[in-house]
Batch of 2 targets.
Target 1
Amino acid sequence: MVRFILLSVLFLLAFYVIKGLLKGLKSRKVLKTGSKHDGKPPVTDILVQDPVCGVYCAKRDALSLNWQGKTYYFCSDKCRNKFRDQQKKS
Ligand SMILES: [Zn+2]
């Protein structure tokens, strides 16, 4: 019985040590990537909504269209053309 308790305590200790190591690795990784991007603009993953189909897509992947001083973003060329046609009609 005592042996069992000792084993479980050891197991818990090992678990916490591993957990701490993983945490340390993680924070080190963040610091590494942080310094890597020094001088460079960070990757902007701003989500923009397509006014035609309502889908959200990353700004850097989206197609943009300037319409009357406002920039609109679209998921595809098809949506952009559709939007352009709609604006022309109205
Ligand atoms: Zn779309």
Note: The chain has a mean pLDDT of 84.
Target 2
Amino acid sequence: MKAYRIHRYGGPECASLDEAPEPELRAHDLLVRIAGVSLNPVDYKTRHGALRVLYRPKLPATLGNDLAGEVIAVGSAVAGFKVGDRVIACSRINDMGSFAEVARIDARCASLAPSSIDLATASALPLAGQTAQQALRDLLHIRPGMHVLITAGAGGVGCLAIQLAKSMGAEVSTTASPRGDALVRAMGADHVIDYTTTDLASLGRTFDAVFDLAGGDALDACFKVARPGSTVISIAGLPTPSAASKALGMGMGIKTLFWLASLGLRRKAAANGVSYHYYFLHPNSSDLSALAAMVDAGTLKIIADRHFPFEQIADAMAYLEAGHAKGKVVVTL
Ligand SMILES: NC(=O)c1ccc[n+]([C@@H]2O[C@H](COP(=O)([O-])OP(=O)(O)OC[C@H]3O[C@@H](n4cnc5c(N)ncnc54)[C@H](OP(=O)(O)O)[C@@H]3O)[C@@H](O)[C@H]2O)c1
């Protein structure tokens, strides 16, 4: 089968679409004939080797976490799925391999696909959707009336996060450039801050909760605009030891490394009277099914910026890596 694999860590030249053996089915797995995959920044970060400290796949390794397709085989310990089911899923970070004609996925990370949209587009939901849903619901505890800031609202996670925060009853502010302004308003954002002209930090202590998808200087500014006592959750800053350990079961050595790496951010947060946490998503069937149901109910829209054919997956990756995607980038098989 064809698969998009990394052969060594580095730039785009380190990955190629080549012949690979089909994956072996484990007891908890589904084997899926892929109809579409969506791309996430974790794909090019993995290719770069930026995540080697977290997990180190044996090379060559097939990239990709998000998938949509038809089940062609079911592992002996799987309940609730059968051959022929249309499914979507996002693998755990250390169990990637969806950029292929056939992929295996732990069934505990899968859900039946929404029936109201095409399968390839549905592949844009799992990773971005669950990240936003879990961070807003479980860490920021968004409740009606809260004013939440979501940075980088026009990207893959941002478009879903704005809609989910609105569905939880929040007032939503987001940062976007003029290129993303119309899109984030269409997603339901109440206020748009043009990050190319406005210094976020100048807004003052405005927000009850902050979900940062941008990292860097934007994250520093988030600490200054969150109300004292509130929480800033980032998925783009430096991981905190508890987040890394919960997601990947890390030992003391790695926990210490992340404790040191995130110390500067935690200090900046503390100096502003707010708490800082990083979040790694936890793929699971029940959260994903709930999101798929929202799509079918018409209460959650998937924004696919561009669809690429599988033969052009390197172009799709370059497009995402340029950092200006509006919504999700999807590859169709
Ligand atoms: N920890 C986890 O579990 C997890 C899960 C998912 C994603 N992530 C991380 O979250 C981040 C976002 O992911 P994504 O999929 O949403 O990325 P993405 O789709 O590539 O985001 C691109 C968008 O971000 C906007 N943007 C870039 N810098 C910005 C800034 N400083 N302020 C406001 N907007 C900005 C761009 O807008 P313009 O082009 O208009 O500037 C573009 O529309 C990535 O770092 C990713 O690795 C982590």
Note: The CA atoms of residues 155 and 325 lie 6 Å apart.
